[in-house]
């Protein structure tokens, strides 16, 4: 990897990007960004803004955490009465914690921008700043943003199915793991030396299972989602219909994620 003003770049990725400099397009059909760090900077700013809002409203005890974090099913915060409906819970003066199955659909997206611990957000945002710009340079801004958001949603879908029903999940790790997977796909496509990437993945997998309270479900979902999205973007056939193929593939992934979420909500309801 080479040092760069926006993080680090693999030499083969840089060489591949240079091939498309004259056309104004990236190697995979996207518009070549004038500032490859812009999207990552905006995503970091949003995450930082949400974290600061949580910090000033109570930290881990902030009501924002209950609203923004992903909880597969809502519950009544009253010992022994967790399964009371929202109406029954509030009628008894207890606090109801909303969940996806009872209508808090926004959580599948907002949870990916929600952090409480400063070490959590620092690690995730550092990874985004290192990996994001080089992927945006390779894919283009719109495709990179699609990769990030679909990875995040794929992570949320696996959390809905595999995480405990009433456990909240938060953090950008799912989307970050999607970027890890995408970097592997791009590096493989251009024939880069992938030993350092596999070492990075191995370290993160170890951390996922060695450190308590880390969502392996979100990491797994994000990694799979990012890998599938990146493969669609990178291996789309060249030619005038490449963009159509890419858009169709991304819409199919989005539809599959949506169906998984809808089915899970119906099971939990």
Overall description:
With 269 residues, the protein is mainly alpha-helical. The protein has one domain (2-60, 118-268). It has helices at 11-18, 38-56, 63-68, 86-91, 107-110, 118-139, 141-162, 173-189, 195-210, 216-234, 242-268; strands at 2-4, 7-9, 75-77, 95-97. The strands form 2 sheets. The protein has a two-stranded antiparallel sheet with strand order 1-2. Strands 3-4 form a two-stranded antiparallel sheet. α6 (118-139) crosses α7 (141-162). The longest helix is centred in the C-terminal third of the chain and has 27 residues, at 242-268. The radius of gyration is 20 Å and the shape is globular. 42% of the residues are buried.
Total beta strands: 4
Radius of gyration: 20 Å
Poorly predicted regions: none
Portion of residues in beta strands equals: under 5%
Q: What is the straight-line distance between the termini?
A: 48 Å
Shape: globular
Can you describe this structure in just a few lines?
It is built from eleven helices and four strands. The chain is mainly alpha-helical and 269 residues long. It starts with a strand and ends with a helix.
Topology:
Elements lengths: L1 E3 L2 E3 L1 H8 L19 H19 L6 H6 L6 E3 L8 H6 L3 E3 L9 H4 L7 H22 L1 H22 L10 H17 L5 H16 L5 H19 L7 H27 L1
Antiparallel strand pairs: 1-2, 3-4
Helix pairs in contact: 2-6, 6-7, 6-8, 7-8, 7-10, 7-11, 8-10, 10-11
Fill in the keyword field for this structure.
269 residues, two-stranded antiparallel sheet, 11 helices
């Amino acid at each position: 990897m080479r040092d760069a003003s926006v993080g680090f770049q693999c030499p083969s990725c840089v060489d591949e990007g240079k091939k498309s400099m004259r056309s104004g397009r990236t190697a995979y059909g996207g518009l070549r960004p004038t500032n490859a760090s812009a999207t990552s900077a905006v995503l970091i700013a949003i995450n930082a803004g949400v974290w600061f809002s949580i910090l000033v409203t109570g930290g881990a005890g902030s009501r924002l955490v209950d609203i923004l974090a992903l909880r597969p099913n809502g519950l009544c915060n009253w010992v022994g009465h967790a399964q009371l409906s929202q109406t029954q819970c509030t009628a008894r003066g207890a606090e109801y914690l909303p969940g996806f199955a009872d209508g808090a659909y926004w959580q599948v997206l907002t949870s990916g921008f929600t952090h409480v611990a400063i070490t959590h957000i620092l690690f995730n945002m550092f990874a985004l700043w290192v990996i994001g710009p080089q992927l945006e340079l390779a894919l283009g801004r719109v495709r990179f943003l699609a990769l990030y958001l679909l990875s995040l949603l794929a992570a949320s879908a696996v959390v809905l199915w595999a995480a405990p029903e009433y456990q909240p999940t938060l953090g950008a790790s799912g989307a970050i793991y999607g970027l890890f997977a995408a970097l592997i796909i791009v590096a493989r496509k251009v024939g880069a030396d992938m030993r350092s990437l596999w070492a990075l993945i191995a370290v993160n997998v170890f951390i996922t299972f060695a450190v308590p309270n880390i969502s392996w479900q979100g990491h797994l979902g994000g990694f799979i989602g990012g890998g599938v999205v990146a493969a669609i973007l990178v291996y789309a056939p060249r030619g005038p219909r490449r963009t159509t193929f890419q858009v169709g593939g991304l819409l199919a992934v989005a539809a599959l994620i949506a169906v998984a979420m809808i089915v899970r909500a119906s099971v939990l309801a």
